[in-house]
Automatic annotation (TrEMBL):
GO terms for molecular function: S-adenosylmethionine-dependent methyltransferase activity. The lineage of its organism: unclassified sequences, metagenomes, ecological metagenomes. Keywords: Methyltransferase, S-adenosyl-L-methionine, Transferase. It comes from marine sediment metagenome. This is Methyltransferase type 11 domain-containing protein. Residues 68-157 form the Methyltransferase type domain. GO terms for biological process: methylation. The keyword S-adenosyl-L-methionine applies. InterPro entries: Methyltransf_11, SAM-dependent_MTases_sf. The keyword Transmembrane does not apply.
Amino acid sequence: MGRGEWGWRLLAVGWPATIREVVVEDVKTISAPAAAGLGQPSYVWRFGLERRLDLIRRYVPLEGRHILDIGCGIGTFVQRLREFSPHVYGVDVDQERVRRGATALPHLVVAVSEQLPFADGTFDVVLLHEVLEHVRNDRVTLGEAGRVTRPGGRIVIYCPNRLYPFETHGIFLG
């Protein structure tokens, strides 16, 4: 596998240098207290989204590509990705979120990640942005992501770092 090429072999041979570089660069972000001090705590999430989009664009061509966002919610990332391609689709298990997003964005579909409603090799880019930790079966989800990705396509996965001392993703109070 050459520099800049990554995918399924990542599981078999470890983390290629390209992935390590992306991970290292991703942790160099604005601090949460500084962002929250701007008066809008959701700025932290939006800043992270923009930062990740910049990283994706550095390593994955998006212009004119067929893109799938698995776990799209109301379609925030779908909307941003449509600035680069009109062929962006989103799926989410939450019917209400898809309904809300679909009022402004076409091609949002209610579906579980373990059974995607698309033909084999439909997409050039498949994105799982902080969704893999929420699915019932991560192996089946990854298999489906691979199935709908064209040969030579890219699967981009972001997951929370559970070792980060301020990680609250998945902590439930009650």
